[in-house]
Amino acid sequence: QKEVEQDPGPLSVPEGAIVSLNCTYSNSAFQYFMWYRQYSRKGPELLMYTYSSGNKEDGRFTAQVDKSSKYISLFIRDSQPSDSATYLCAPVETSGSRLTFGEGTQLTVNP
Amino acid sequence: GAVVSQHPSWVICKSGTSVKIECRSLDFQATTMFWYRQFPKQSLMLMATSNEGSKATYEQGVEKDKFLINHASLTLSTLTVTSAHPEDSSFYICSARDRGQGVSPLHFGNGTRLTVT
What we know:
The complex is a heterodimer of chains A (about 110) and B (about 120).
Chain A: E1 4-6, E2 11-14, E3 19-25, E4 30-38, E5 45-50, E6 54-58, E7 61-66, E8 71-76, E9 85-93, E10 105-110
Parallel strand pairs in A: 2-10
Antiparallel strand pairs in A: 1-3, 3-8, 4-5, 4-9, 6-7, 7-8, 9-10
Chain B: E1 4-7, E2 10-13, E3 19-25, E4 32-38, E5 45-51, E6 57-58, E7 67-73, E8 76-81, E9 90-96, E10 107-108, E11 112-116
Parallel strand pairs in B: 2-11
Antiparallel strand pairs in B: 1-3, 3-8, 4-5, 4-9, 5-6, 7-8, 9-10, 9-11
């Protein structure tokens, strides 16, 4: 079983839609959770970074963590064509510094 | 925000030659930098952890003699692909964490696309 599972998609939505991106993980040592966005042929850029269970909002983006079920989500409201990218979840352990990436979900927002 | 600069952004080389990729943290110091490899439509795979002033730690299956890593300062790490072959063609990405921020997010460079002919 992979430590981090993420549906690779592809996911295609119309502009303005609410997008839900999800990951599950199996390692209980994961305590910090990051979401990265990666455009084609570019390095990943950090979107959200959260520690505790619950929601964290930043503009149109909301990160949600449920440690009891080992489930993390990223919601995008009012999606825009510029949101078209691959989204990677990346949990990290408290004691170490390595990130474990999910497969990434490829998102396309159609105008 | 924290910026990681990676150079070159792309390189084409002939089989058997060596290629060096540089990774710099521009506005912060990084005790540790990470080198990833990404094949098309796949996620990032960690190759090695580069530690300033000491030897790199390689992931299982990564040949340390082929992928030489040097982390000579708190702002620079280099990855040298030695005797490159076509199967080494890939997207190589470095990342770094601000040494002053404990468990903090990694900041990534924009990657280097290596093509070996």
